[in-house]
Amino acid sequence: NNNTQPAYQPQPRFGSALIFRKIFLPSFLFALLFSLCMHQNLGSVLSIPLTLGLILYIAVVSSRLNTKLNHKAILPGACIIALGISNAFTANTAILVSNNLGIFLLTLVLLLYTYYPDTNWGFGQWFVQLLGNIFGSIDCLGDFVADAKDLSRNSDQKKNSRGLAFLIGFAIGIPLFFIVLLLLSKADAVFHSVLLHVIPENFSIKDVFGYIFCFIFALFASYCGMRRVAKRSIMFKPGSPAHSSRIIAYTILLPMTL
User: Within its chain, how far is the Cα of 226 from the centroid?
Assistant: First the structure.
């Protein structure tokens, strides 16, 4: 009998103010970095600080969740940085798309190595777990809302939650401000003419919405991604043979090679 307990414990699955406090602020800062580096930019010298920031973000959030990066995460982490460096020295769109896809997949692998350190999976089980965490992250949008609600209800942490409340209001208020500004500009010719005299000539509403979209996407993707892996959910029965999942994986991957 193996009575040893794992050094980690799964995080609460739904409605946790504590988890929100641990993940939101790093996710907010990473979303700012992502929007500055990735808006209309598949790859440039900015890819280097972005990939470094990505590794730092995962390390910081994992530490706050009482999980440390282990030696298995070194190789995917190094490959992520190498792909970021590659993006800085190429203008080939196909290479940039391939590198960014590689960064995304390697990030998932790094997270699995970090949050599932004691697993010995076959290729098919890895593939199923990767897909499960991708789609499970979408489901964690509900966790984001539930965590935020739990934070607002927690009277014991109101004093410490003011900063987070400000950031949440900022993240929601800025996009709404520009949406209202755009609607008023379209509806009122006088307001539109005044606006043209106030804003700089090189100011672009399209760019503003582009940055806002990148920021919101990165904020929810990073928060929900970390929230998902912190649950440590296994998408298949532990100890089950990998043959069936391997067949599924090959079936899905085969068309991609054609």
Answer: 7
